[in-house]
Amino acid sequence: MPEGKLLTFIKELSVLLEQKPSEEIIFTKGKKLLETLIAIDDWLPTEFTKPHPQYYQQYLLYADPLDRFSIVSFVWGPGQKTPIHNHTVWGMIGQLRGEEKGTPYYPQAGGGFKIGKACVCPPGHVDTVSPNTHDIHVVENNLADQTSISIHVYGGNIGRIHRSVFDPINGTPKSFVSGYANTLVPNLWNPAQ
Length: 193
Ligand SMILES: [Fe+2]
Description:
Elements: H1 5-18, H2 23-39, E1 57-63, E2 70-76, E3 91-97, E4 100-107, E5 113-115, E6 119-121, E7 126-129, E8 137-141, E9 148-154, E10 163-166, E11 173-176
Antiparallel strand pairs: 1-2, 2-9, 3-7, 3-9, 4-5, 4-6, 4-8, 10-11
Helix pairs in contact: 1-2
The structure holds fe (ii) ion.
């Protein structure tokens, strides 16, 4: 029986992370795996593609039982945008559908942020975040009339991690835990997924 794309990705990423690779290796070899997963948009079940009229949605697709990584479908309605936030673990953002804009924010001595160069991400593109170099950003749907969907992979169970949103003026952090919108996860053994 053929194996679904999501299961293949999870297996290959698990094997890679088993070797305790450097972040550089994760952002080269792991990034290639994610690029392969998002190269063909035919596997994400409809349940995990639905926008909410008010809020961007975070659907858990898989979380490693040892908390080494998690995979989340982010679904953005038109005009939806995150606050300024961090992750505290490495992350890869693979664009599946539509177009998103990711803007890095660099904290400045004395408070506030320097706004970096935005990445406008078409389908197939993978952007990254890293607590070592560029952990703080804002992500938004770059399309005014369409849903955009990206597949995020993080070096921990992102929906359970205590992290921060930041005041745009003075940079003051406020703790939050993002959670997940879904109560059920995909059947990895369905070859269509
Ligand atoms: Fe983020």
